[in-house]
Amino acid sequence: MTTVYLVDDHAMFRAGVRAELGGRVEVVGEAATPADAVAGIVASRPQVVLLDVHMPDGGGLAVLRQVGERLPATRFLALSVSDAAEDVIALIRAGARGYVTKTISADDLADAVERVAGGDVVFSPLLAGFVLDAFRDAPAAPSVAAAATDADFDQLTPREREVLRLLARGYAYKEIAAELFISVKTVETHASNVLRKLRLSSRHQLTRWAADRRIT
Amino acid sequence: MTTVYLVDDHAMFRAGVRAELGGRVEVVGEAATPADAVAGIVASRPQVVLLDVHMPDGGGLAVLRQVGERLPATRFLALSVSDAAEDVIALIRAGARGYVTKTISADDLADAVERVAGGDVVFSPLLAGFVLDAFRDAPAAPSVAAAATDADFDQLTPREREVLRLLARGYAYKEIAAELFISVKTVETHASNVLRKLRLSSRHQLTRWAADRRIT
DNA sequence: CAGCGCATCGGGTGAACCCCTGATTTCGAC
DNA sequence: GTCGAAATCAGGGGTTCACCCGATGCGCTG
């Protein structure tokens, strides 16, 4: 039977997977945080890791990076509520062997786990399309955004973070200026610095970036 | 034993709740869509409905509104991955008796359900703070964008929704025009109509609005 | 004190955005 | 056959964004 390690910050969801997949695969361990996950995976050596994408402290990406180096034989199947292209692409680039959304049924998930264990690559049907698009190269889709990392965020000054927050909420420069009692020009300067430091090129990307990180 | 009806579009999560709460409460039914949920709740008359906030076809809000009128005695406990203020406030305004995040443990969830069944109001500790803030008075923030409702969304024509989707992804008018094989001017018209119908005033607010609703 | 990061402003440019009026075509409904 | 909704496009004007250049103060550090 395929051995599986479960990483998800929602205890309830882990319980669901355990209950539904119990008969088809062997769950050898589970963790709620990236740190616990890394330790647990190294200790239990599962064939497949079911990995939630959105978690505190770096999410699935952090787990993938740390474990991937040490145990290259481990297969990762990303499991997420998000079907956003950035998430999918980031996980795949980091070495995940598949990506399915949490809308998946128990049967399909069990199939996916077994196929990944067997060496296959698995995607939710809806995702397969733009995964191919993304890797074809020149994205017929524009702008795609060289995803800013959380490390970039640390470079922001306090004032810049303040402006970032308001930008993310959709405020116009003028409104931000009024809110912070500074001139529109100063807001422009901060905004420009934020975009440069996060390596983004427009407010739209900034809003998306912030929304993905629950910055409100 | 408290009777509970389960509404969540993730089968895996429902299974988790069922498995973990099985001993403490009686799950009398479950549904994956608002439509099924309304029918099922009316038929099974549970004491408490565990309601996921983010779902296709209007989410938990739709269920709450439709069932709330017909069965005023039913208690709703919102259960969401999101801890965004808008979500919480919207659900509470619509009549939910509590709001907890999916990070909750099985024990705490069982407690919450029983307390809601008994007439209490339950919030995740982290949420209690800004729920009070939100109801203390007006936001003091500018422009605030009289939040567009999902009802407004229904007024959009098919083409407008298409444009909305691309706007939300951060495409420039020019790029949308190229994508849809129409002129920039037509895109402007559609965009303008979308903003008016959703009662928003800029595409930045639109980006935010769409991100909050997971429109990609 | 000289240097540096931070925050504060300004001027100017080109592009993108938002709105207004007005027009045509198509298509289904009355 | 007419009416209205939807989609298409154009012209024009004002606003906002993103970036370029520069400048001034303030506080900290070597």
What is the CATH-assigned architecture of the largest domain in chain A?
A: 3-Layer(aba) Sandwich
Distance between the termini of chain A: 44 Å
Q: What's the count of strands of chain A?
A: 6
Instruction: Please state the average pLDDT score of chain A.
Output: 79
Task: Note poorly predicted spans of chain A.
Answer: 135-146
Report the helical percentage of chain A: 40-55%
The largest sheet of chain A is: 6 strands, parallel
Oligomeric form: homodimer
Rg of chain A (C-alpha, Å): 20 Å
Notes on the structure:
The structure is a homodimer of 216-residue chains. By secondary structure, chain A is α/β, with parallel strands linked by helices. The first copy, chain A, has two domains: 3-136, Rossmann fold (3-Layer(aba) Sandwich); 150-212, Orthogonal Bundle (Arc Repressor Mutant, subunit A). In chain A, 54% of the residues lie in helices and 13% in strands. The first copy, chain A, has a six-stranded parallel sheet, sandwiched between helices. In chain A, helix 8 (158-168) crosses helix 10. The model of chain A is unreliable at 135-146 (pLDDT under 50). The structure holds a DNA duplex (30 and 30 nucleotides).
